[in-house]
Amino acid sequence: xxxxxxxxxxxxxxxxxxxxxxx
Length: 23
Fold this sequence. Notes:
This protein is about 75% helix and about 0% strand. By secondary structure, the chain is mainly alpha-helical. The longest helix is centred in the middle third of the chain and has 13 residues, at about 5-15. The chain is elongated, with a radius of gyration of 8 Å.
């Protein structure tokens, strides 16, 4: 995954369930 995606995923995981992290 790209660095941007990783950062976005971290933010998403912060406000959303871990389900996003699995994606």
